[in-house]
């Protein structure tokens, strides 16, 4: 019960710090927090996670890991409530990262003895206190209890030496993958290339107490075409032959008997390993050597772009933004809750610290303003994407579409690219925040953490980043420390994924910056261990990611970006308006009596926006006024328009001039006629009309003299219109062939209807009458017929009654 209380106390305290819960939480809330955090899922239980490169033992895998294993195992038995275990866990994690390359020969594991399911296992291995570290040699038996490390140090270097001593313990089985660690002799070196085909033999000269030779040998265990041997200073003849005067020192020995010294800044393990890994032909096992000719091809559709590896490119930053905002966020159709808050923080940080070009910064600021005003629940990604694409037409604002990787190129399409761009983007943001100053040190890091947690596509990667943020973000207390935190975590990730399938062989994962790039960033402690000189790392990062040193090579021109954006918006607008007009015309055709008055039709035409002038003197308003004579008084037409106006006048019957129609009655003929012209002018001006030839031969076909082929082309407006200078010319063609406007309307709304010759006569009869006039005539005719029929029936019944009376006697 006490153990549970202690775990609950730690869990509640951790939850309060991470989620800013007040001290006065209720007892029920505290108990729920205790259950959720003190006893989390097994994958997250204890002091270690899978991202620590430590095997987590359990009842299910302890047998397969410790028994008959091909590698030696170093196991920590701990209790998650033990204070000493908690303080020792960072050292054990650091040791796991330090000897990661030893894994084929030595691996590390841990088990939480405080978990109920593991108590029996810890009892079987005779664990009496915590933490306990035991070494299990390769091919251990099932009843092996392991060799305990008594009085082990809290120094990683000493723990590393203890593991090497355990490997060399007399009588224990040797791991099959482990190379020989004992000193070599001159005779063996002389005959080495007769039995080996490697390209390089590295000889490390040292004294008997030094561990550098054995450490470097294990560090290069996973690399091919190189072999490391240690030579003691007692090999006087070989030392004299090569002229060795310093211990330790490293020499390269070649098959022809020649040799040369390996030049490094410090004669220590880390510098030896870094230099030897970069020798020609040295590659990680299982990976082909990088070939520059293949790299030039890049095996992608994009050409290879030469770049300077010591500089940052704006093209990579803009490509990362494009993929983040247009691709990765698109996976969430609706964004709300914590995800929406994370998105707001992310865009806010970008708008404040991203060192982009003016057009990109204008877009980010506009997007941030719009996003911060979204306080009423969730937003759809479609609405967010419209703002990213600047459909609101904010002046001089755009984000280039597509990716154009430069410094983040990979030798294969699946290498580097977006992950590299994201890391570069976050480094730039932290450095910019540090250079500007006067802000929350954790502002950028929190925005990064929440974005990765909610949106980053690689969920396994997101979980690893969350683990790092959870355990160490509280150490950030200043802006420089935020820059260092991100740099240090990036190197941890490089260490973890070095050698994975995701590693580009031409760009191996290293601890960055390299000694060549920043010699002053590397230093050595008194005990010979490598150390980072943080006083030099901070100015290096500030200079490397500074906005003044970002290269603008391979960027698309800003004017071209804006022109492409305007063309895209114009095309989308035409598609949208064309589709809306088609739907509206079809809807109005289904109920012509309730069609809108001329004023609304006129407004619908004008709302389409300004149109480019086409051949013909009339605009859309004049066309509509000519189709509706007797309405509002029109100004006198120009001389060039009179011919068109005469051909478009409403005809008269037997010399009788027709009465002008009211404004509240819509003539379907003129309504359709006007829409035909408006649509023809609009589509011709926008170059979206495909020219087709009108079929005008009545004698050869049973179809009408004029056929207007109406089609829907990709959601746009009408296609199939023959280009004419003026819509009145088109109407005169109809009249000259005997086809009136009512047939034209019927053909528009009923494209597939067969032409009936009786329509010619009906069109003549109905010239000058509206649909309402015809409807009234039909109704009066029906009423008259009904009255006449009733009178006929009445008088016939009266006549029958009189005949019946006359027939009575």
UniProtKB/TrEMBL annotation:
Location, primary (coarse class): secreted
PROSITE patterns for the chain: ERV_ALR, THIOREDOXIN_2
Domain of life: Eukaryota
Gene Ontology molecular function, alphabetical: flavin-dependent sulfhydryl oxidase activity; protein disulfide isomerase activity
Cofactor(s) named in the record: FAD
Subcellular location: Secreted
Presence of keyword Glycoprotein: yes
Ranges of biased composition (kind: Acidic residues): 604-632
EC number(s) reported in the record: 1.8.3.2
Gene Ontology CC entries for this record: extracellular space; Golgi membrane
Reaction it catalyzes: 2 R'C(R)SH + O2 = R'C(R)S-S(R)CR' + H2O2
Keyword Flavoprotein in annotation: yes
Transmembrane segments: 772-795
Residue ranges of the region described as Disordered: 588-655
GO biological process: protein folding
Annotated keywords: Disulfide bond, FAD, Flavoprotein, Glycoprotein, Membrane, Oxidoreductase, Secreted, Signal, Transmembrane, Transmembrane helix
Record-stated family: Belongs to the quiescin-sulfhydryl oxidase (QSOX) family.
Role, per record: Catalyzes the oxidation of sulfhydryl groups in peptide and protein thiols to disulfides with the reduction of oxygen to hydrogen peroxide. Plays a role in disulfide bond formation in a variety of extracellular proteins. In fibroblasts, required for normal incorporation of laminin into the extracellular matrix, and thereby for normal cell-cell adhesion and cell migration.
Name of the featured protein: Sulfhydryl oxidase
Organism of provenance: Poecilia latipinna (sailfin molly)
Taxonomic classification: Eukaryota, Metazoa, Chordata, Craniata, Vertebrata
């Amino acid at each position: 019960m006490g153990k549970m209380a202690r775990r609950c106390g730690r869990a509640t305290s951790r939850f309060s710090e991470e989620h800013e819960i007040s001290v006065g939480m209720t007892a029920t809330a505290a108990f729920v927090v205790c259950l959720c955090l003190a006893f989390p899922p097994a994958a997250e239980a204890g002091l270690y996670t899978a991202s620590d490169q430590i095997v987590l033992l359990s009842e299910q895998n302890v047998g397969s890991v410790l028994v008959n294993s091909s590698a030696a195992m170093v196991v920590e038995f701990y209790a998650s409530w033990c204070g000493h275990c908690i303080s020792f866990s960072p050292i054990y994690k650091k040791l796991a990262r330090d000897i990661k390359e030893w894994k084929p020969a030595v691996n590390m594991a841990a088990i939480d003895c405080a978990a109920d399911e593991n108590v029996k296992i810890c009892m079987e291995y005779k664990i009496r206190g915590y933490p306990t570290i035991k070494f299990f040699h390769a091919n251990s038996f099932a009843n092996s209890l392991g060799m305990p490390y008594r009085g082990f140090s809290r120094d990683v270097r000493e723990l590393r030496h203890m593991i090497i001593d355990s490997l060399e313990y007399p009588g224990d089985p040797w791991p099959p993958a482990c190379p020989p660690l004992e000193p070599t002799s001159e005779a063996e070196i002389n005959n080495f290339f007769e039995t080996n085909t490697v390209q390089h033999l590295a000889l490390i000269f040292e004294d008997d107490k030094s561990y550098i030779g054995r450490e470097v040998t294990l560090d290069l265990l996973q690399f091919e075409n190189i072999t490391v041997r240690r030579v003691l200073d007692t090999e006087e003849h070989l030392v004299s032959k090569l002229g060795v005067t310093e211990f330790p020192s490293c020499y390269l020995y070649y098959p022809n008997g020649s040799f040369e010294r390996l030049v490094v800044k410090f004669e220590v393990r880390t510098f030896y390993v870094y230099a030897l890994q970069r020798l020609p032909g040295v590659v990680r096992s299982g990976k082909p050597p990088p070939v520059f000719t293949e790299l030039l091809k890049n095996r992608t559709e994009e050409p290879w772009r030469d770049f300077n590896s010591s500089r940052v490119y704006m093209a990579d930053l803009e490509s990362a933004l494009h993929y983040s905002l247009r691709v990765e966020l698109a996976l969430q159709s609706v964004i709300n809750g914590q995800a929406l808050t994370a998105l707001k923080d992310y865009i806010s940080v970008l708008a404040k610290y991203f060192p982009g070009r003016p057009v990109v910064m204008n877009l980010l600021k506009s997007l941030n303003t719009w996003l911060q005003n979204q306080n009423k629940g969730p937003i759809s990604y479609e609405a967010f994407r419209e703002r990213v694409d600047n459909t609101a037409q904010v002046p001089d604002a755009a984000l280039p579409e597509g990716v154009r990787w430069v410094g983040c190129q990979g030798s294969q399409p699946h290498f580097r690219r977006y992950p590299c761009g994201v890391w570069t983007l976050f480094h730039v943001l932290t450095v910019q925040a540090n250079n500007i100053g006067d802000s929350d040190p954790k502002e950028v890091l929190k925005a990064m953490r929440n974005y990765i947690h909610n949106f980053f596509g690689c969920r396994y990667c997101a979980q690893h980043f969350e683990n790092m943020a959870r355990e160490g973000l509280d150490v950030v207390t200043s802006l420089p420390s935020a820059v260092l935190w991100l740099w240090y975590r990036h190197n941890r990730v490089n260490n973890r994924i070095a050698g994975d399938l995701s590693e580009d062989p031409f760009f191996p994962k290293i601890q960055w910056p390299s000694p060549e790039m920043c010699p002053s960033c590397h230093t050595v402690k008194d005990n010979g261990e490598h150390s980072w000189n943080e006083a030099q790392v901070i100015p290096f990062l500030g200079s490397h990611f500074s906005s003044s040193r970002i290269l603008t090579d391979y960027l698309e021109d800003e004017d071209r970006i804006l022109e492409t954006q305007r063309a895209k918006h114009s095309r989308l607008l035409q598609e949208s308006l064309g589709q809306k007009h088609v739907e509206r015309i079809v809807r109005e055709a289904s109920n012509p009596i309730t069609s809108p008055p001329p004023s609304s039709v006129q407004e619908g035409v004008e709302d389409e926006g300004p149109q480019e002038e086409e051949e013909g003197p009339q605009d859309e308003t004049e066309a509509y006024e000519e189709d509706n004579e007797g309405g509002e008084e029109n100004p006198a037409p120009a001389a060039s328009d009179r011919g068109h106006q005469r051909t478009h006048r409403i005809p008269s019957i037997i010399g009788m001039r027709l009465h002008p129609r009211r404004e509240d009655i819509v003539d379907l003929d003129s309504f359709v006629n006007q829409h035909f012209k408006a649509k023809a002018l609009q589509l011709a001006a926008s170059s979206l009309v495909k020219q087709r030839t009108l079929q005008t031969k009545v004698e050869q076909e049973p179809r009408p003299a004029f056929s207007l082929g109406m089609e829907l082309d990709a959601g746009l407006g009408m296609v199939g219109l023959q280009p004419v200078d003026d819509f009145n010319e088109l109407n005169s063609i109809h009249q000259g062939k005997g086809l009136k406007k009512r047939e034209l309307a019927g053909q528009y709304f009923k494209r597939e209807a067969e032409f009936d010759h009786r329509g010619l006569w009906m069109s003549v009869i109905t010239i000058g009458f509206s649909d309402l006039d015809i409807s009234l005539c039909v109704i009066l005719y029906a009423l008259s017929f009904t009255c006449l029929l009733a009178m006929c029936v009445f008088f016939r019944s009266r006549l029958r009654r009189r005949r019946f009376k006359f027939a009575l006697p």
